[in-house]
TrEMBL record:
Residues 56-83 form a coiled coil. Keywords: Coiled coil, Signal. InterPro entries: AB_hydrolase_fold (IPR029058), Peptidase_S9_cat (IPR001375), Plant_Biomass_Hydrol_Est (IPR050955). The lineage of its organism: Bacteria, Pseudomonadati, Planctomycetota, Planctomycetia, Pirellulales. Residues 242-390 form the Peptidase S9 prolyl oligopeptidase catalytic domain. It comes from Roseiconus lacunae. Pfam families: Peptidase_S9. This is Prolyl oligopeptidase family serine peptidase.
């Protein structure tokens, strides 16, 4: 067994091109927001609430005044972008304010009379920031940080341009008391606080609150980041991506101590905290979940009766965001949980505490005496004291011991260990590894793992003269560092006979790997573009269903996911979009040029006479496939056929219901009505195997 360079080279040129294209798109978007408005989207099935709900009617004169002021600011911003040499530095911090008002006007999202005044205040702040940009202010000063008022924490709001859809997403920053500008050399402890659910807490209420309230916690010498997280989805899917992007964007304003960064939250935010803690444990110095939920079925009370068929496929999909299967990963961080003594959501932390006890470890668990769904001050003090203690005693990297479990390569990293291939997705894969830095030796035991990388770039540890003795599943070898980054790196692959060897360079066969492992909803966690057909489908029923689903995705993304939509006709798809985007293609294999061009490389057959999926035939006049698959034109991105996010209005009741409802592929009977759970009757469904082949049919 020999060493192999494991880290992939960054695509610097592609990233630069993408960055420049985003700035161009962003400057255009200042003049036109919500491109591609949907007029034919279907209303939700009666019985399921709209999310967010419709707002109140505001005074027509106020609406007109807001629109005039908004248009003036957007025009000024466009001119300032054109005249600025660094719009990428400041643009989002202005647009986050104007976009909030624009969305409220266009989507009827004023929920209280006071929100009208709040909108004017946001526009006033956008005006101030534009003037500050021209004056040369950047960073915290642009956001309004006052160096003369440091006796108390200061609350600021900022924005970032989402890599998913180019929308400007908001987040809050709490600057600790005593901070002074500039402090570029000092790295600060940083807490991420995930907020609770509020159906009406869209952009204006969120920004207004974040500009005026410090929040539940404001620890000493600690910056606190408050992500918006796409409103009400428990920081899952695109909301999950947003948390990481908010953390990255915050580095424009202050230096983050990556070894003293914590994830915290309450209620819906507590649920989000749990899944960040188990999926990415070594990223966080500490995790502090309060209340929330840790699964779907028990939290919803569906143990005895499910509202839809609990298929083997659904059981696997639930492993994406159900916490308990991943609970052993909590060994990789410091956890302190909170529950109110009489809170109905106490069962979440109780169940995790019981699970880790069964696994042989425990974490501090603070229970607020006689408290319901609230944190009392005594508990706040206990929790803050414990996390401060951990922050003052951070162990040096690398971690000497790593234990990591995963069920999907979407979550594949724990410090210096990275799982890059699995025997079977949604079935447990694990690594137990120890490193002796003095002896320059590593010992690992794996289960369900086929591809593995070791990467010490975070710590910079390089073994002895870039050489490390490795024992993996009883096999011994001396590995040489082949990386060009700091620290030791290598890449390993397990052969069919169980022997671990180096992984060769060059073109790798098609297989599931991190970022390209399905299911369908995974394609909407990263950058995507909707590709519309230029011709009608062969069958009228199928075309009407395609029209409905196309409109539904655009409407739902804009309203529920608070995003913008990139839409192109098939004939207008660009090389840059193929290189950088997941392609969400609607149509059949004759109506959409993109699908027509790659049809022979996709694993299904769809003609006027037949539809064949996983070896089974269906009538193409009233059936349609949905699927995700590596794009044959760019296998590092997905191509998705006829599907948006798979959770529908049924999920609006609770963010615990916002789960992946379809796997890698499915066949839909399009004659059935949308029941707000599925897009039609699911005739068959399943996962592709690890080589993106059908695994013996669906379930």
């Amino acid at each position: 067994m020999k060493g192999l360079f494991c880290t992939e080279l960054k695509q610097s040129f592609s990233q630069l091109c993408l960055f420049v294209s985003r700035i161009v798109l962003v400057s255009i978007a200042l003049a036109v927001v919500n491109i591609g408005a949907v007029s034919n989207a279907q209303p939700p099935t009666p019985g399921y609430k709209k999310l967010p709900p419709d707002g109140i009617q505001i005074d027509a004169a106020d609406r007109q005044r807001l629109q005039i002021r908004l248009d003036e600011l957007k025009n000024r911003a466009t001119q300032t972008v054109q005249q600025s040499s660094d719009p990428e530095v400041w643009y989002a911090d202005v647009a986050v304010l104007t976009r909030a008002v624009d969305l409220a006007i266009n989507q009827n999202l004023f929920f209280k009379p006071a929100h009208v005044n709040d909108a004017f205040k946001l526009l006033d702040e956008a005006d101030r920031r534009l003037e500050a940009v021209v004056a040369g202010d950047r960073g915290l000063k642009l956001l309004g940080f006052d160096p003369d008022k440091t006796a108390k924490p200061q609350t600021l709001v900022a924005g970032f341009v989402s890599r998913i859809d180019d929308s400007v997403q908001p987040f809050g920053i709490v600057v600790p008391a005593g901070y002074s500008l500039p402090q570029h050399e000092q790295a600060f402890r940083t807490d991420i606080w995930l907020h609770g659910r509020g159906d009406t807490k869209t952009e204006i209420p969120f920004l207004t609150e974040r500009m005026n309230k410090v929040g539940q916690y404001a620890p000493r010498d600690t910056f606190v980041i408050h992500p918006f997280g796409r409103h009400c989805n428990a920081f899952k899917f695109a909301g999950e991506t947003d948390v990481y992007e908010a953390l990255q964007a915050a580095e424009r304003y202050f230096r983050i101590d990556s070894q003293r960064t914590s994830i915290r939250g309450f209620s819906m935010g507590g649920a989000g905290c749990w899944h960040f803690a188990v999926h990415d444990p070594t990223r966080w110095m500490a995790a502090n979940p309060g209340a929330g939920f840790v699964d779907t079925i028990v939290y919803q009370g569906w143990q005895n009766e499910m509202p839809f068929n609990k298929t083997p496929t659904m059981e696997k999909l639930l492993r994406w965001y159900d916490v308990l299967p991943w609970a052993n990963n909590l060994r990789g961080t410091n956890v302190i949980a909170y529950s109110g003594e009489v809170d109905k959501q106490k069962q979440a932390a109780d169940r995790v505490a019981q699970k880790v006890d069964e696994l042989g470890f425990e974490f501090p668990y603070v229970i607020g005496a006689e408290m319901g769904h609230k944190i009392n001050q005594e508990s706040v003090a206990k929790i803050d004291q414990q996390i401060a203690s951990w922050a003052g005693d951070v162990a040096p990297l690398p971690k000497p011991k790593v234990e990591f479990v995963t069920y999907t390569l979407r979550y594949n990293t724990a410090d210096w260990v990275r799982i890059t291939g699995m025997v079977e997705h949604w079935t447990k894969a694990s690594v137990k590894a120890t490193v002796d830095t003095d002896a320059a030796s590593i010992e690992m035991n794996t289960e369900g793992v086929t591809h593995l990388e070791l990467d010490f770039s975070r710590s910079g540890w390089a073994g002895k003269s870039d050489v490390v003795d490795v024992t993996i599943d009883g096999q011994q070898a001396t590995l040489v560092d082949m990386g060009n980054s700091r620290g030791f790196q290598c890449r390993l692959i397990r052969q069919d006979d169980g022997e671990w060897t180096k992984q060769s360079f060059g073109q790798q066969p098609l297989r599931k790997r991190p970022g390209l492992q399905g299911p369908i909803d995974d394609a909407f966690c990263e950058r995507f573009v909707i590709v519309l057909p230029s011709r009608p489908a062969r069958h009228g029923r199928v075309q009407r269903w395609i029209d409905r689903e196309t409109d539904y995705l655009q409407s739902r993304w804009k309203r529920l996911m608070r995003g913008d939509i990139q839409v192109v006709q098939d004939r207008d798809l660009t090389d840059d979009q193929i290189a950088t985007c997941n392609l969400i293609c609607f149509g059949d294999f004759s109506s959409n040029r993109v699908l027509f061009n790659v049809a022979d490389s996709l694993p299904i057959r769809w003609t006027r006479q037949t539809l064949v999926v996983a070896g089974k035939s269906y009538d193409p006049a009233d059936h349609a496939p949905v699927m995700c698959f590596p794009n044959p034109m760019n296998p590092s991105r997905y191509i998705v056929v006829n599907s948006g996010m798979t959770f529908r209005e049924f999920s609006n009741v609770s963010n615990s219901r916002q789960i992946a409802m379809l796997p890698d592929y499915a066949v839909i009977n399009v004659t059935e009505e949308d029941d707000s759970i599925f897009p039609g009757t699911v005739v068959d469904q399943g996962f592709f195997d690890e080589q993106w082949q059908f695994a013996g049919g669906g379930n």
